[in-house]
Write a structure and sequence with these properties.
111 residues, mainly alpha, de novo design (two linked rop proteins), 5 helices, 0% strand, globular
Length: 111
């Protein structure tokens, strides 16, 4: 069983890798979405944000904040299936990003 610090470290590493890959793929925005778009209550804010926006402006910063505060990481995380569906619609090499998202799911789903 992975201890808390090891889990934090693996999650932090995955966050950095996801960010780096999103930047490499040109999926990193320089301008945040509007406050209205960020106020959605739908899962993944799918009604107001694209998946990469949700990752950049919601998931990554919130998960970093939990790690920095020593809080409880989210569990039952299944971002990969949605990412696979969304990124398959695009003309891009999304394999590495999907692998990184799967790794993050795996870290967050540990007991």
């Amino acid at each position: 069983m992975m201890d808390r610090m090891e889990r934090y470290n693996k999650a932090a590493d995955a966050l950095l890798a996801i960010e780096a890959e999103m930047r490499l793929q040109g999926l990193w925005a320089s301008t945040p979405p509007s406050a209205k778009a960020l106020s959605s209550v739908m899962p993944f804010m799918y009604d107001t944000l694209q998946l990469q926006e949700w990752l950049q402006f919601v998931f990554l910063p919130r998960t970093r904040a939990v790690i920095e505060a020593g809080g409880v990481l989210p569990g039952n995380c299944h971002i990969h299936p949605l990412a696979e569906h969304e990124f398959s619609k695009r003309e891009m090499d999304h394999g590495t990003l999907l692998d990184l998202i799967r790794q993050m799911d795996n870290v967050l789903n540990l007991p």
